[in-house]
């Protein structure tokens, strides 16, 4: 009879440890999903201006470009730890190939960052400058999503 409380306590400790370990993975997924939402908001503002759907505003453009740039400066290893692919975490859209070809993923991210750097410089310089930079950002997004993200289909 005395073993039952001990077994229950052990199960709670082990179960709590497993639950705690599992909560680390969703936190990374949630963080990078937040990162993508910041990027989507920022790119939405910039693309809206480039298309003429939002009136060009140098200050707003600079702020959106700055936020976009800031989002690319986060440590990838922290945001994209192993064990958080779409095969392992239901809410993840990150394909397992990211961790199979980490160097390729980092190179793709670096290429996107170059386009974002150009956008940050161009955004406050006027509508034409912003329009000239938006294509590189869009291509960077599209390429990454094609190669590294689970399809919506």
Overall description:
The protein has 153 residues and is mostly helical. The protein has a single domain (3-148), classed as Up-down Bundle (Four Helix Bundle (Hemerythrin (Met), subunit A)), CATH 1.20.120.10. The chain contains 6 helices and no strands. The chain has helices at residues 3-51, 58-72, 76-79, 97-100, 102-122, 127-148. Helix 1 (3-51) packs antiparallel against helix 2 and helix 5 runs antiparallel to helix 6 (127-148). The longest helix has 49 residues, at 3-51. The radius of gyration is 21 Å and the shape is elongated. Mean pLDDT is 87; it is low at 1-22. Residues 1-21 form the signal peptide. One of its GO terms (biological process) is electron transport chain. It comes from Jannaschia seohaensis. This is Cytochrome c556. Keywords: Electron transport, Heme, Iron, Metal-binding, Signal, Transport.
Q: Strand-and-helix sequence, N→C?
A: HHHHHH
Number of domains: 1
- Estimate the helix proportion, in percent: over 70%
Fraction of residues in β-strands: under 5%
| Number of H/I helices | 6
**Oligomer description:** single chain
Alpha-carbon Rg, integer? 21 Å
Under CATH, the topology can be stated as Four Helix Bundle (Hemerythrin (Met), subunit A)
Note the overall shape.
elongated
Low-confidence stretches: 1-22
The H-level CATH homologous superfamily, spelled out, is: Cytochrome c/b562
Class based on secondary structure composition and strand pairing = mainly alpha
Can you tell me the CATH class? Mainly Alpha
* Alpha-carbon distance between the two ends: 55 Å
* Second CATH tier, the architecture: Up-down Bundle
Query: Overall mean pLDDT score?
Result: 87
């Amino acid at each position: 009879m005395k073993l039952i409380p001990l077994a229950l306590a052990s199960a709670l400790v082990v179960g709590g440890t497993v639950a705690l370990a599992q909560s680390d993975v969703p936190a990374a997924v949630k963080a990078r999903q937040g990162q993508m939402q910041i990027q989507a908001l920022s790119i939405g503002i910039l693309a809206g201006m480039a298309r003429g759907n939002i009136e060009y505003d140098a200050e707003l453009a600079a702020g959106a470009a700055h936020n976009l740039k800031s989002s690319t400066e986060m440590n990838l290893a922290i945001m994209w730890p192993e064990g958080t692919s779409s095969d392992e975490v239901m809410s993840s859209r990150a394909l397992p190939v990211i961790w199979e070809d980490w160097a390729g993923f980092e190179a793709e991210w670096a290429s996107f960052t170059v386009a974002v750097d150009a956008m940050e410089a161009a955004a406050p310089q006027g509508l034409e400058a912003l329009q000239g930079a938006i294509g590189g950002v869009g291509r960077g997004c599209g390429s990454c999503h094609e190669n590294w993200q689970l399809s919506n289909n």
